[in-house]
Amino acid sequence: MRRKCDESAPKAHVSRFPGTPRPSLNCVARPLRDFYEGIYHLAARGSDIRHLFLTDRDREEFLGRLDATWQQFELDLLSYVLLGSHYHALVRIPDARLSQALQQLHTEYSRWHNRRHGRSAHLFRAHAMTKPITSDRQLIAAYRYLALNPVEAGLVTDPLAWRWSSARAHAGLEQPRIPLREGDLRAAFGAAEDWRDHYRRTIEAAAAETRSPTQPRTPSSSSDPRSSAASR
Asked: Torsion-angle region of residue 74: left (phi > 0), alpha (psi -120 to 50) or beta?
């Protein structure tokens, strides 16, 4: 039986990024959502037709803020992928603090993004998608889904070629860009010593099934994700 989380969170909310304005006391925050302790698949999209990431510099900034926010709220990041119009992440949470963490992450990144690109409208949709993961089978499927997202969006033909995903780190091809908790993924593959090889073969097999024989090869990173492929 899962325990329902209360809306607890660390009391300190000091941003690690200088120059970020303090929240206005006149602004009414959205009601916090209930979460249970466990692992969640998280996805957030841009408002209307807006893209969250227009350049690789945007993605670098978001990853830095994601890492800082997760450390501040003591959350575990299991996996992630950044595209153009949205991002996905797998997270392990101890209680309902995920709501506050997302509010802070999205608000602060939105302010930075709008200043950088001369915009003022809302960047993120009102609520992120969150789906609990309750079995090893679901967890492996979620890791596979995140890794294949750039392939299905037409950005790459090889999921391990997309720079803005943690898939390459899980496969042992590079060091993680930001800290990742990989114990759950290892356990899902039976805690075998060669679990990274199992992960890589799983991803490569799934990519082979979804790859179209006529699909053109595209660059492994796009400096302008406003193309139709990146918006999927």
From this structure: left
Say if 86 falls within a structural domain. Answer: yes
* Number of domains, the chain: 1
Which residue segment(s) compose the domain that 126 sits in?
A: 38-210
On whether residue 122 sits in a domain, the answer given is: yes
Top-confidence residue, 211 or 131: 131
Q: Where are the alpha helices (DSSP H) in the chain?
A: 56-72, 98-117, 136-152, 167-170, 183-188, 195-210
User: How far is CA 87 from each of CA 5, 10, 205, rounded to the nearest angstrom?
Assistant: 25, 25, 23
**pLDDT tens readout for residues 150-185:** 999 999 999 999 999 999 999 999 999 999 999 999
CATH number of the domain to which 176 belongs: 3.30.70.1290
Element (H, E) at 40: strand 38-45
For residue 23, count other CB atoms closer than 10 A to its CB: 13
Contact 99, 7 (CB under 8 A): yes
Instruction: Read off the pLDDT of residues 11-49 as tens digits, 9 standing for 90 and up.
Output: 444 444 444 444 433 333 444 456 679 999 999 999 888
Q: Is residue 181 part of a domain?
A: yes
Look at residue 186 and tell me if it is in a domain: yes
Amino acid identity, position 87: Y
pLDDT for 120 beyond 50: yes
% of the chain with per-residue pLDDT over 90: 69
d(Cα 175, Cα 132) in Å, to the nearest integer?
Answer: 27
**Alpha helix stretches (DSSP H) within 86-135:** 98-117
Please tell me the number of Cα atoms within 13 Å of 194 on its side-chain side. 5
